[in-house]
Amino acid sequence: MKPTINRPPQRLERPVLRKRRRPVLSETYLRAIAHHEAGHAVACVRFGIAFEHVALTPDDPARGGFLRHPGSGSMKTRRVYVSRRTLANEVFMMMAGDAAVRPFFTASEEHFAANRSGDAEQAMRLLEWRGYYDPEQNYDAGNQVFCHVPPTERAAFVEEQRQRAIKWAKSHSDSGGYWAIKAVADALVYRRTLNSEEVAAIIKNAIWVVCGRV
What would the DSSP string read from start to end of the chain? Predict the structure, then answer.
């Protein structure tokens, strides 16, 4: 009869599953995206478009950053019918992101930030369902006529606002966007998230500094 040998139970080693690290944005591209999001935020403040906060997401290169509107984060939570000028300003705000990158970065960095956003496509989708009315016409409340930008004119409508945004972003005057975009972008790189009140305060301070220089 063989003696019984008490052996310790063998531990089953589980394979170590290493979490795949997401690529992190370089500092240059992070700043480019900060200027992109700052362009949206500054345009919102300029035209009185409500937003909750603007943020950078450096650990999520697929997103990079975002501007969150009230509710679901979609502009569809706002009124469907607005004045044509308000509609133009909303498209301007959507195109201000790419426009804000141009004065500060090279063509390759600008191209990188622009390709990430798809803002032009979103603006085209906005025009599909967003209607407007003519405030100069005195229609009765029940007979007011609403209309949409015709499909054949939407691309030109978006391009017009894009050129308008580019000119605004390059302007160094107190009504231009250059200094406000730069100030908000610098704060965004440092803080990562800014709410609407903080953005408005940064813009006010930047304009005061510019006016003090003149």
Answer: -PPP---PPPPPPPPP-PPPPPPPPPHHHHHHHHHHHHHHHHHHHHHT---SEEEEETT-TTTEEEEEPSTTSSGGGS-SEEEHHHHHHHHHHHHHHHHHHTTTS-HHHHHHHHHHH-HHHHHHHHHHH-EEE-TTS---TTT---B---HHHHHHHHHHHHHHHHHHHH--STTSSHHHHHHHHHHHHHHSEEEHHHHHHHHHHHHHHHHHH-
